[in-house]
From TrEMBL:
CDD domains: PMEI. This is Pectinesterase inhibitor domain-containing protein. It comes from the Eukaryota. The keyword Signal applies. GO terms for molecular function: pectinesterase inhibitor activity.
Length: 180
């Protein structure tokens, strides 16, 4: 009887030590609601912290979610923005008669097709808790948008917003991986 009591006590002490040794980034992963300080820190690593904060706070889930949930929020925001930009490019491509601009819009349309695919992939990876996959997909999305920026200067605001929201997803995924 004393032996099993000793084992139970040792197990309890080990469990408590493990909980106390969890880093702040790991505790966020375990369902702890994020605070304003986390949002501010994440957004400070972007080119437009104000837009980042405004975007994340535009979703009511941000106020009550953990970091994993915030990754979902950022992916949804990126999907909306990337899709809206894709639609805009498609409409511009149909309207323009300038052959050079048509070529540029066509290249951007291809890039944004890829960006949408990468945002969708990030969502799939988040569903399976593959934060490395989310990080890779967000990075690839940023590359797709950069390819569009290289093709034309006609979409500066759309590219900026799309890139920033993919970067936020990347930053969150990296924090979930303990890299930030």
């Amino acid at each position: 009887m004393k032996g099993s009591s000793f084992c139970a006590s040792s197990l309890l002490i080990s469990l408590l030590l493990a909980i106390l040794c969890i880093s702040p980034a790991q505790s966020i992963r375990l369902g702890v609601k994020i605070g304003e300080d986390v949002l501010t820190d994440l957004c400070s690593k972007t080119d437009d912290p104000s837009f980042c904060l405004q975007s994340l706070k535009s979703d009511p889930q941000t106020a009550t979610t953990d970091l994993r949930g915030l990754a979902g929020v950022s992916i949804n925001l990126a999907k909306t923005t990337v899709t809206k930009t894709h639609t805009f490019i498609k409409s511009q491509l149909e309207k323009t008669t300038d052959p050079q601009l048509k070529k540029q819009y066509s290249q951007c349309l291809d890039s944004y097709d890829d960006a949408i695919g990468n945002v969708d992939y990030a969502s799939e990876q988040l569903s399976s808790s593959d934060y490395g996959g989310v990080s890779s997909a967000a990075s690839a999305c940023m590359t797709d948008i950069s390819d569009c920026q290289d093709a034309t200067s006609a979409l500066p605001q759309q590219n900026k917003e799309s890139n920033l929201l993919c970067k936020v997803t990347l930053l969150i995924a990296n924090r979930l991986l303990g890299k930030v």
